[in-house]
Amino acid sequence: MPELTAEHDRRKRLHETYHTAFLLRQKLVPDVISAIVNYAELFEPHHLCTCRMDAVMEVEQENSPQQCVKTPPIMSTARVQQPVRRVTFDIESHDQGWASDMNRGTWTWFFARVERQSEEGQQQEPLDELTTPREREIVRNPIAKREFTHHHVEWCADSDDKDEAKWVSRLCVGDVISIHAGAMYSGWVNHIRSVSVSVYTVSMR
């Protein structure tokens, strides 16, 4: 089953990371080991959520935006409050397949939203945009294309894009990520077949 395979892969990756750290301890002082492990991107993968629709979801201006998927709270074996180093999104979608003016841009898209949970598991007030941007656009559909496109997008905590790096690095344990589909203007339709989110966290403090 996919869930068992993902858990097996996660445990195998953790075993490899700890074994690597054990070997490094034979030669190096402990303070630099976690930095080396993280620099090598030996992260702990969490395939948080996949949603493949039984029927294609259609989002138009009248019902935009629509939530496609919402993850469980972020977890990490490392005892740090902000452990996330990478978030990946995989989306299969397309627009309405035509446009009256190809020069006016594309108006079907996806964005990610982060929600912070209280200790009791209740959603708190929207995050302070000065500390953690709540929403960020993921991708827009190619204009006037009827065939499904697979969008693979990665956001990293060490990205040269400061907004991207800020969004990822300030995710906390317990945060929930939701993916939303949008459409604007008459005639524009966002067709969605599947959405998935994976989060990679540091495996060592």
Attribute tags:
four-stranded antiparallel β-sheet; alpha+beta; 205 residues
Written overview of the protein:
This protein has about 200 residues and is an alpha+beta fold. Helix content is about 20%, strand content about 35%. The chain has helices at about 1-25, 30-40, 160-170; strands at about 45-60, 65-70, 85-95, 110-115, 135-140, 150-155, 175-185, 190-200. The strands form 2 sheets. A 4-stranded antiparallel β-sheet has the order 1-8-3-6. The chain has a 4-stranded antiparallel β-sheet with strand order 2-7-4-5, with no helix packed on it.
Q: What characteristic shape results from the CA principal axes?
A: elongated
Q: In DSSP terms, counting alpha (H) and pi (I) runs of 4 or more, how many helices? A: 3
Please give the share of residues in helix. 10-25%
Q: Tell me the strand percentage band.
A: 35-45%
Order of H and E elements: HHEEEEEEHEE
User: Tell me about the biggest sheet?
Assistant: 4 strands, antiparallel
Poorly predicted regions: 1-6
- Please give the order of strands in the largest beta sheet: 1-8-3-6
| Whole-angstrom Rg | 19 Å
Q: What would you call the structural class?
A: alpha+beta
The counted number of beta strands is 8
Question: What is the mean predicted local confidence, pLDDT?
Answer: 78
Span between termini: 31 Å
Question: How would you summarize this macromolecular structure in one to three sentences?
Answer:
The longest helix is centred in the N-terminal third of the chain and has 24 residues, at 2-25. Helices cover 20% and strands 37% of the residues. The strands form two sheets. Strands 1-8-3-6 form a four-stranded antiparallel β-sheet.
